[in-house]
Design brief:
Elements: H1 11-27, E1 31-33, E2 44-48, H2 55-68, E3 72-76, H3 84-92, E4 95-97, H4 100-108, E5 112-115, H5 119-123, H6 140-148, E6 152-156, E7 165-166, H7 170-179, E8 186-187, E9 201-204, H8 218-236
Helix pairs in contact: 4-6
C-alpha cells in the first residue's frame, strides 16, 4: 500500500535545510526564470531534468516557495525509502515513493507534483551526454497527467550538468544495471567532490495542456511525451 501523501516539506525540514539552501543559492548565484508559467493554484506536474548533483531541484522548490508560496511534493526513487534514516529524511523533505497512486492522490488534492522522469539513469549520464534527455520508455507521468487532466510544466537547469565532470565507466554501468544503485565516478573543483561554483539558472517552460482521458491512447501518450521532451531540450539549450 502506498504511503499517504503529504503536503510537501515539513516546517521543521524547511527550517533545518534553510542555511544549506541559502549557502548554495549564494554559491551558485541561483535564480529562476519563468515562474509565471506556474499556476497560482491548482494541480500541475512539474517534469524536471535530473542532474547528478540533484540539489538544483531543491533550490528550485525553495525559490518557488519563497516567491509564490506554492510547495512542490516530489516523487523520489524507491531506494530512498528502503532505509529508516533516509526514509524519514526524504518524507520530511516532501518526497514520497514514486507510485501512480501517490501521484494521482496529490494531484486530485490540488498539489504541485514534481517528477524527474529520467531518474537515476539520467543523473548518472557521463559529461559526454550532458544536456541530453534520457527518458527512454518512461511515460507514466504522461499517463497520470492524462488520467487526471492536469498540465505538464517542463523544468531544467542546464548548467547543473557543469557542476561535475562525470566519467563514463564500467563500474557505474554495472552497478546501475545489476543493483540500480548510483556509483558515479566524477570530480568537481580539481580532484575533489566539491561542486564547481557555476552560476545556476533554472528555467521553467510554458505549461503543456493535457486533456483528461482514461483511454490512454498510445499515440496520444506519445504525442504529449514528445512535446514535454522537446520542451526540456529547448530549456537545456539555454545559457
Amino acid at each position: 500500500m502506498p504511503d499517504a501523501p503529504t503536503r510537501g516539506p515539513t516546517p521543521r525540514a524547511i527550517k533545518s535545510l534553510q542555511p544549506v539552501l541559502e549557502a548554495l543559492r549564494r554559491y551558485h548565484r541561483f535564480r529562476v526564470e519563468g515562474l509565471e508559467h506556474i499556476p497560482d493554484h491548482g494541480p500541475a506536474i512539474l517534469a524536471v531534468h535530473h542532474s547528478l548533483a540533484t540539489y538544483d531541484a531543491f533550490l528550485f522548490g525553495y525559490e518557488l516557495m519563497n516567491q509564490t508560496g506554492r510547495i512542490v511534493t516530489g516523487l523520489g526513487d524507491n531506494k530512498l525509502f528502503a532505509f529508516p534514516g533516509l526514509r524519514r529524511a526524504s518524507r520530511s523533505a516532501g518526497l514520497l515513493p514514486a507510485s501512480p497512486e501517490n501521484g494521482r492522490t496529490l494531484l486530485e488534492e490540488g498539489h504541485l507534483l514534481g517528477v524527474a522522469p529520467g531518474g537515476m539513469r539520467e543523473a548518472l549520464r557521463p559529461s559526454s551526454e550532458r544536456r541530453t534527455v534520457l527518458w527512454e520508455k518512461r511515460r507514466g507521468f504522461v499517463k497520470l497527467a492524462m488520467q487526471v487532466g492536469v498540465p505538464i510544466i517542463p523544468v531544467a537547469c542546464p548548467a547543473a550538468d557543469d557542476l561535475y565532470t562525470v566519467y563514463e565507466n564500467r563500474l557505474t554501468k554495472l552497478a546501475y544495471k545489476r543493483l540500480k544503485f548510483p556509483v558515479p565516478i566524477a570530480r568537481g573543483v580539481g580532484p575533489t567532490a566539491i561542486p564547481r561554483p557555476v552560476r545556476l539558472t533554472t528555467w521553467v517552460g510554458p505549461a503543456i495542456p493535457v486533456a483528461p482521458s482514461e483511454a490512454l491512447d498510445a499515440d496520444a501518450v506519445e504525442a504529449v511525451h514528445k512535446r514535454v521532451r522537446d520542451g526540456i531540450s529547448e530549456l537545456l539549450a539555454r545559457r
